[in-house]
Write a structure and sequence with these properties.
With about 650 residues, the protein is mostly helical.
Length: about 650
């Protein structure tokens, strides 16, 4: 049998080989030596093959030799092999000791077999060693790891004077089985009996506090750590740091981190990860530089966090540097890191580099495909994202998860592929995604952009218990962009009367709906409500909607007055809206003013020249219109052309 061998230093191998040579002499009656110690040495160094050879060469194996082998197999992760050896030992008529049974119970815990646990418990009772506290502790731990908390606690209750190790084991067993509240209650009982927890107990309890999401409990356990002087234990400090990080409490985490006398790579990684989670990406990169000055080498987790920081900042140059460092450090084969790099390049707008890393990834996961497909959607290549979906379905056996489904729906909405939206809707229903709010919101947006509001509203209606502000925004915006302004306004008022409060995006959607449907009074009333409510600050986009609303309705003087009044909140889009209104209603003088303002605010965009040319043409000033067009050609200004999807067909999407 070929078993895996752990790495050993050459000196260790040489020493063990020398002792083994002496042992072989002893086995032939020349030189005695304690072969059990040599067996233990082989197992501790991971040299299982030589341990097995030596064990086979021992003519008369005693219970110690068997026990050392049983423990050794456990130490190296071979639980089943350990149990097989114990069965052979039983056949040889040797009586197991408490040391033997502890090793056997460790195997049971690793295998998680409750039936086997009961059998071993019976043997322990038969041999009369159930009162040995080491055996009892291993037994209650084995029951807990097998999911049998009742029997685990029963064994604990039979201990006459349970010590710290036994108490820690039962608390750990409760936490292992997700009985977090019960674990805390049990720990408090032990504290009242005078138990002083050690590092292992505290580490277990911190996990329970994190799962319970109780700030009071977290602060209490932190107080205990300080009180019993465990603040010098790096593992405990890292666990406390992780506890505050899980609550996204940057201030408390920073105090713990700065107060740590000794920091390892886990300490730095936890702090960097927290900063990235809170989108303090620049601070995360600064902290990494401090980490490097301390001489601590980064691991793959740090590299992933740094890549995420660059994604947040959109810093392509630094992202490439960290990618290069990862290659130098030998992390290039780590799939999670590759997936992060694919996403980073996409978010930084370098889709070619993203695709290069993706194509160089031999064993792609669902995350790899999702990152690449989303990257194409984010960078305005929806057709390419659908081609990747086809490729994935041809090469892999992955099923679409909720994240990929949202990305593909976004691509469909960009291309107005109604039939594919319907197919994806069926897939979402079949895969059990109707309770995924994000998927349902994406379906509403996709149907809306495809121009079919009936299924969009049906999805919205089915979300009665899981709607959020994004759901309302999607349906209001959908009706708005499809010319149903009255329905959009009705839904807005319905939303205001419900539990969800409108946000800035809600007001933008409903104001846009009013603008496109000519609902002047409704639009002005809603804008005034927003301004007077003082909960949402009106932005340039909100002001642009009002200008567009007034200009479309022919209230050009009011629109011009509004722009001048909210000059700080208006930008080129507001003046473009006014310019377009002038085109509709033939106001040349105001159109020229609006065009000058657009040029001052956005000189690189030639759209205002085209609009002003159309204004001149509408009042039959064709020479002025031609002069503007000629000037555009002379300056080599090119307006972005419109794109029609009438003749665009995406095929082979199954």
């Amino acid at each position: 049998m070929i078993l895996k061998k752990n790495e050993k230093s050459p000196l260790t191998i040489l020493r063990l080989y020398s002792i083994h040579t002496s042992t072989q002499c002893y086995l032939h009656g020349r030189h005695p030596i304690n072969h059990s110690k040599l067996l233990s040495g082989y197992m501790k160094s991971g040299d299982i093959i030589n341990a097995e050879k030596l064990f086979e060469e021992i003519p008369q194996r005693d219970v110690v030799s068997w026990s050392v082998m049983i423990h050794g197999y456990n130490r190296n992760g071979f639980r089943r092999k350990s149990m097989e050896l114990f069965s052979q030992m039983r056949v040889s008529s040797l009586v197991p000791t408490s040391f033997t049974m502890v090793g056997v119970l460790v195997s049971v815990a690793g295998l998680g077999d409750p039936v086997l646990g009961r059998c071993v418990h019976g043997l322990i009772l038969k041999n009369g060693i159930d009162h040995d506290f080491r055996v009892a502790t291993a037994l209650l731990n084995a029951y807990a790891k097998c999911g049998n908390v009742v029997d685990s606690y029963r064994v604990f209750g039979q201990l006459e004077n349970p010590g710290l190790v036994s108490c820690s084991a039962i608390v750990s067993g409760f936490v292992y089985n997700d009985l977090f509240q019960e674990a805390v209650v049990l720990f408090n009982q032990f504290r009242r009996l005078g138990l002083v927890p050690n590092a292992a107990t505290v580490l277990t309890l911190i996990r329970a506090c994190i799962e319970l999401e109780s700030r009071l409990l977290c602060e209490s356990i932190h107080g205990i750590v300080v009180k019993i002087s465990l603040v010098l234990d790096v593992a405990v400090n890292n666990s406390v740091l992780d506890m505050y990080s899980s609550m996204l409490d940057l201030d408390s985490a920073t105090r713990v981190f700065e107060g740590m006398e000794f920091k390892d790579v886990i300490s730095w990684t936890t702090m960097i990860n927290l900063l990235v989670c809170l989108e303090h990406a620049s601070d995360a990169l600064v902290l990494f530089r401090h980490m490097r000055k301390t001489g601590i080498s980064q691991d793959v987790v740090v590299a992933m966090n740094l890549i995420s920081a660059c994604s947040i900042l959109g810093d392509l140059r630094r992202g490439r540097e960290i990618h290069a460092q990862a290659i130098v450090n030998g992390f290039q084969s780590e799939l999670p890191l590759k997936n992060s790099i694919i996403a980073m390049y996409s978010k930084c707008g370098d889709l070619d580099s993203s695709r290069t890393v993706f194509d160089q990834t031999n064993q792609k996961s669902l995350v790899s495909w999702t990152a690449m497909i989303l990257g194409c959607v984010q960078n305005g290549c929806p057709r390419e994202s659908l081609n990747l979906l086809i490729q994935m379905r041809g090469e892999e056996t992955f099923c679409l998860d909720s994240v990929m489904l949202i990305g593909v729906l976004s691509a469909c909405s960009e291309l107005a592929l109604l039939e594919l939206c319907q197919q994806l809707h069926c897939h979402a229903f079949r895969a059990g995604f109707p309770q995924y709010r994000s998927v349902q919101n994406s379906l509403i947006s996709a149907y809306s952009k495809c121009g079919d509001m009936e299924p969009a509203y049906n999805v919205f209606k089915e979300m009665i218990y899981i709607r959020d502000v994004i759901s309302w925004n999607a349906i209001i915006n959908g009706y708005g962009i499809n010319g149903h302004g009255e329905i959009a306004v009705t839904l807005f008022h319905e939303m205001r009367n419900g539990p969800e409060n409108p946000d800035a995006a809600t007001y933008l959607s409903v104001l846009n709906a009013c603008s496109h449907s000519g609902l002047l009074e409704d639009g002005l009333l809603i804008f005034n409500q927003m301004v007077e409510g003082h909960t949402i600050r009106h932005s340039e986009d909100h002001c642009g909607c009002i200008v567009d609303l007034l200009a479309r309705a022919g209230c050009l003087s009011d629109a011009s007055e509004f722009v001048n009044r909210f000059m700080e909140k208006t930008g080129p889009n507001s003046w473009r809206a006014l310019l377009n209104g002038c085109r509709l209603h033939g106001n040349v003088e105001l159109a020229e003013l609006a065009a000058r303002m657009v040029y001052e605010l956005d000189p690189g965009e030639p759209g205002q020249v085209v609009l002003l040319s159309n204004v001149y043409a509408s009042v039959e000033r064709f020479q002025d219109a031609e002069a503007l067009r000629a000037g555009m050609k002379k300056k080599e200004l090119i307006k972005n052309p419109g794109i029609s999807l009438i003749n665009s067909v995406v095929s082979h999407i199954g």
